Here is the input.
Amino acid sequence: MAAGRRIVSLTSLLWLVLGLSLGIFAGRGFRPAPPAEPEPARKARHRNVAPAAPSTESATGSIAPSENAKSRSVLETLRRLAADKSGNSLGTCLGLIRDLAASDCREALDLFHGWPNGERQIIHRAIAARWASLDPEGTWRAISSVRNRDIANLLCLEAARELAKRDPDAALAKLSQPSPGLSEFIFTHFVITAVAENDPARAAAFLLTRRKFIQDEDLFRNVAAKWAKSNAEGAVAWATSLPEGRARSQALKAAWNIWAEKDPAAVGAIIKSSPHVRFDRSIVGSVASAWSKDNPGAAFAWIESLPAQADRDRAWSSLELDVQKLGAAATLELIKRIPTDQRGQVAARIVSEWARTDRSAALAWLERLPEGSDRNQALRPIVDEWAVSEPGQAVAYLAGLPASDAKTDLLRRVAGTWAAQDSEAAIQWLQGLPAGSERDQVASSAIKALGEVVEPARAAQFLTLLESPVQRREVVQEIAARWGRSDGAAAAQWLGQLSDADSHANAYHSLARQWAFVDQDATARWMESLPPGASRDSAIGAFVESIDGYDPALATFWAAAIENPSERDKNIRSAFERWLQRDTEAARNWLQQVQLDEGLRLALAQASEERLRKSVK
Here is the structure.
């Protein structure tokens, strides 16, 4: 076919393009570095540059007095707006920045440190871009005097972009000069990335001469992706020439994926005709995705011809079928050709997009899927979006589906979202469900979600909806943990009043662990009040885990109070070893006085002696 005729031997193609790329690079070369500037002249030049305004020159020459006055007026306005630390004036500030002079950009950068992180980053990037567009060399010189590393990185990025746009050779020559206060790898990353935006072949050829940066796999991946957009074959050839390692694999993956998106038929033919070449499976997926959008019949035939089952699975799961373009009936016929275990994933992508414009049509189409298809998997994205906008309608639709574990899972998802948005409506709906396994599972999700947005005491009121002991224990444990962070005493009182309190040892553990971080003394008093048994042991074990890092002595004392022998020995060993590290003498004195099982005493004594020998050395 046409794609096949265009394909020559892959190995020959790779080395041919690589040779041409390196030849171009060698022919163009780097501009020779300027002669070293005499030291007195260099110092004199630098004395004339004020730190706060590295350059008063724009890209077109000196700033006219009227423009400078306008910039100072803009700077004063920015100062007033920046004083409001809410960041609400972001849009206004971005408009003003377009009138800043280069000489005022450094000062402008210092105005917004009190702004929220997101808005501050946008403002700083805009100022850095403005400064670099006017005076890239001045921006570059300012980097070394900027203490904030994030701002220094932005200045380096924007200056490198502007320099690379004007003269890529000059930008690359910067790499032979001292780094402007940044690590060599960060410095190189920004410069090469900037050059790659306009001349990826030159950036790629330069990297071949600087193999020490091979550990920056992101850089090699970015360069390969940029180059592949204009010359995919060249990018693949370059990536293939790299030494084995993550940088090579990432660069190859990026180049092949871009090529697959541009010409899936060509890459598909290469994959099929090159069984000796090991292609990353993401490339197989990219071919299937891109090809199926324009020619699903050809894509299906290609997938079915792949020899490896793993490749076929990846390709089937990556299909992108446009139901609007193909029509519902034709799409359904194509779906039938997809293996059953992959069908639900593809259908999910189709209906997720379709339901945004016509939910009823998408649902009707789903119901026509052939038997054996995972309709519930396909239904999940619709239900998740539906639960946010119209949860009542979502559960009404789900109620009409046949009973199944998948249906229950979908109801749980809706109930959790609904309870977080409108707890009263969600609980009222739950109370109307017939008692049983399905209600237990759905109510469990709703109560957990409810506990995240309301007081735990409010969520605890709905435990009566749960009949399953397993679901009840799980929910009680989560409520106890959450409540212990805000009001451990109230949580403890609630736990003690439960009719089945003895069955909630895990909840006692969760409460003690969280409460100990908030109020260690109150937690200890509560544990002292508990009757002996599994719940008390569980609470003490959690308390020991929480405090042995900063008070191993107290942790060891409490560990010895655990009733269960195996749990007691385990906790004592752990806490005592920490105590030995913190205060060897005090730990050894305690060991001589306390009554312990002889086997445990011997083990602790051996640990004590070992610690003593290490301290003597």
Confidence is low (pLDDT under 50) at residues 1-62.
